[in-house]
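Researcher: Re-running this chain for the archive, since the previous output was lost when a drive failed. Same request as before.
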Amino acid sequence: MPLSDDVKAEIQQGYRDVLTGKGIRARYGQRLMIAEIARYMGDITEDDGKRTSAPAACVVEAGTGTGKTLGYLIAAIPVARALGKTLVISTATVALQDQIISKDLPDLEKHTRLRFEWTLAKGRGRYLCLSRLETRLQDEGHGDSDTMPLFLLDEGREQEPGTREFFEELLGQYGSRQWDGDRDHWPSTIPDDIWRQVTTDHRQCTNRHCAYFDNCAFFDARKGLETADVVVANHDLVLADLALGGGAILPEPENALYIFDEAHHLPDKALNHFAASVPLNSTRQWLKQLGQALVKIQPWLPPSTVASRTVEKVSEASRQLEDCLNRVQEHLLNSIQWEFSDERRTAQWRYPEGELPEQLLALATETRAATAGLVRHLGTMADELQKGFDERKDHELDRDTAEAWYPVIGSFHARAEDQSRLWAAWCESPAPASDDDKPAHRPPPPARWAVRQRWDHAEEVTLYSSPVLADNLLYSRLWSRAHGAVLTSATLTALGRFDRLRSRAGLPADSRYLVVPSSFRYGEMATVGVPPMDALPTDTEGFTAALVKRLPELWAAEKATLVLFTSRRQMNAVRDRLAPDHPGLITTQDDMAKGEVLRHHCERVDAGKPSVLFGVASFAEGIDLPGRYLDHVVITRLPFSVPDDPIEASLAEWVTSRGGNPFMEITVPDASVKLVQAVGRLLRTESDTGRVSILDRRIVSRRYGQLLLDALPPFRRIIQ
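Model: Regenerated structure tokens:
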């Protein structure tokens, strides 16, 4: 639909109004971004609301300071409304999600004449389940109560002191509407083991049949979803919706225009979403819990009913599955040369090219069949229990039984379905190659591996499977169906090219790409230096000693320093050797919760005291310390991927089989993206200044180093 003059005028006027209303100046990169997104959406052709043009995405790399959020909102909202499509904005983090909902969208409506409705979409597990909370309070955590079968799911865990009081506080705050039931909006972090007791998932939720439906936090949050012009979600929720066929949670892809902010996370998120795992010992324990639940449910079920007869079928399928798991574990323990070290209690075994030995494949096939039988029979029980909610019809089971047991059986059914994904993935054979199918065109086989963990009195063997690339998954489920999609982030290129993103995300051939200039004057604002070092990172002990020697010299003249490591072990070793001589100066990211670490750091700076933060990968991307809170970023070593990562190893194996160079095609581009993200911690506003120090001399001594340096922002370089 070519952009009409009215839509163009609406975009232009909206941008002028925001600039005037907020008292900010226009940014060249932001204007380019607005124009490109509007043009892209206007070039989509349609017939009766259905896209007729070829699938295509719009990819915009926009660095810090561009004003990405305002850029895509101003461009996309008027076009989406003109097309009659829902604008779905997807982020990688809850923080950005909340920022868009609570700040960016209200600001846009306040300062412009644009009128639109928006809503927030989160997964069910982020919201309080009032039914589970009330039941938990009534039961006081006694899992052996016949009247509280739901808490068979809580694994017989003893209640921690103060838990009941906390649950009462949750209920009081929610009942008085001082809290909306959103986990992320509670004033303090709620531990996972506590939250798990008072939330639910789609298999346990009875939806409109629940007595608390009218007061449900989840459904209350979803009320505006169907009528909203803008839906703010996250990548995980979008992928979950696509896995269900699209349109189950969010608008159907055909009726949506997507904006993926922090889009560099999308391929990895997709891989995680479509991966599968089965912990063998934990699964056997879970099967025992299932057996306990079946004993307890039997008295609730009238004899000779479908549900009652199915109980024995579930029991038999459970016994068959347990026998299969025992034989799988016995085979793994005896056939693999597990390599444990003195320091590590974990060993890993990856199957080259994803090929399972013949005997293991036969066991996996048998286990798949047993799991499928368990899924089928549990599904029958869940269906029978669900019928009990319909009081308009006579049914074999009454409503009390349905309310008591549907969440329990639903949870077991969901767990069994999750298990079946792993066995299906382990048994799946690659598509047969045709005579003219060249190796370079064949997709990579899945990564399949096993991990063995040892503790003092127990151990676990976990099986894994994962796609190696998300390209086909994203293309078939998203890009080929979406009416349109925009991807944006500060780090979408690797080594100055979009090739990495294009291949990993499976972007359509007709996609368009743009890098918009930053408003930062990098050469005036910061330097990047490579000081002399006595050792290279390849010499672990020597490099640790060199860091201990060099770091105090680097932070001596600075008030706020961030030191980034690639190894937690090395970070702690350096800290332990430096801390006694610098009391109170160093804070590591493991010392306390992330927010507390940053707050402690800022308080020291505000008090005029120097502060040094030690962190690993999550601090290389996920923190924002503007102005005086950060004036020096030290990168100890180049962020190359861990060599034993099974997915990366499988991808490298595949690249090698195609005649490629995995180091230059995978490792170096990945490191470039991570390095740019780490360097990006330094400058957060146009008034920031500072310096970056890279202590890994390979960046100047190796051939690939120049590529990595050239991909960084154009800081003034100081190479010693």
